[in-house]
Write a structure and sequence with these properties.
Elements: H1 24-57, H2 61-92, H3 98-111, H4 118-130, H5 132-141, H6 145-161, H7 163-169
Helix pairs in contact: 2-3, 3-6, 4-6
């Protein structure tokens, strides 16, 4: 609404009558909730600013890319180290003890890559299918092993499902 002074906004109306009476505890609780809401909003804004500013913290996009590739190289080196440990563990164990394969099974998801670990995946899958009773005991005795096995089976199904591995190892998976 326009006034004769040219204002186009309404002026705030202040109630001086104070018709509602709230006790002190209610007012304090309300003020505390408003403070918490403001603090939460402040944290959200700071988090959003950190996410947006992160790439610009590096002096240039080249420095950001170099940091990214350094991390990727470090991850690849760690995976290679774990692959070596897995190979040593599996090749060293000639009688195929269940303890060795438990460690190997838990270690496998940390380094698995479809491009490099096809034969390791096939070897693990063959052992797991041969040792159904041992795997069943692991599932019953260890709560976390079910998640490990689900993750491994998902990875191995993808590896075996690829045409090159299926034809190379002449594998056929029957889902029951």
């Amino acid at each position: 609404m326009f006034t004769f002074q040219g204002d186009y906004k309404r002026r705030a109306q202040v109630n001086l009558g104070r018709t509602t009476h709230e006790d002190r505890a209610t007012l304090l609780r309300k003020a505390q909730e408003e403070r918490k809401a403001r603090e939460l909003q402040r944290r959200r804004e700071l988090a959003a600013m950190k996410i947006q500013v992160l790439p610009s913290l590096c002096s240039s996009s080249r420095a950001y890319e170099q940091a990214f590739w350094r991390r990727q190289k470090q991850v690849a080196c760690e995976k290679e180290k774990l692959r070596g440990e897995w190979d040593d563990l599996v090749l060293r164990d000639t009688n195929e003890s269940s303890e060795t394969w438990l460690i190997a099974t838990r270690l496998f998801p940390f380094f698995y890559d479809k491009a490099y670990d096809g034969e390791r995946a096939i070897r693990l899958l063959r052992w797991l299918t041969r040792s159904k009773k041992v795997v069943d005991n692991w599932l019953r005795s260890m709560d976390s092993f079910e998640n490990v096995l689900i993750r491994i089976m998902s990875m191995l199904t993808k590896a075996v499902g690829s045409f090159s591995l299926r034809s190379q190892y002449n594998l056929h998976i029957w889902i029951i």
